[in-house]
Amino acid sequence: MEVSYMFRFVLSGIIALVFIFGVSILVSWALRKLLKRSLRGSQKGIPLPDTFLGDGVYFGFKFVQYHASILLTGACLGLIIYLTVGRWIRPDLEWSFLASKGIANGLFFLGMVWGPGLALVACFIHGRKQMKTEEPSA
Description:
The protein is mainly alpha-helical. The chain has one domain (5-36, 50-130).
């Protein structure tokens, strides 16, 4: 069975996304442990010239993490939907063609259209939860 070039290309892209997702999780975890700072700027760890800088780097990696997870979700949903519904509607098409189109469309629509906005909202929710847990009780 011949696997199409497009399917191999899209599959290598998904592997790269998994790698980016893993690296962003590790870097954001390491930054939070290394800096040991709250969002309000109480410096207990490495002193930075600006408290906004450390949080910006941390939330930049969090944004990449959330966006990569949304991209992976879009690729998986596109693959599942195209293989089930596409095979039912168009039984004459090959599995590899349906899989590559499903992954590509899932990556585009969920990852590139909705992904950045959802990742930004998730970062704001994450930051708000951290601020609420770190507020001093009166």
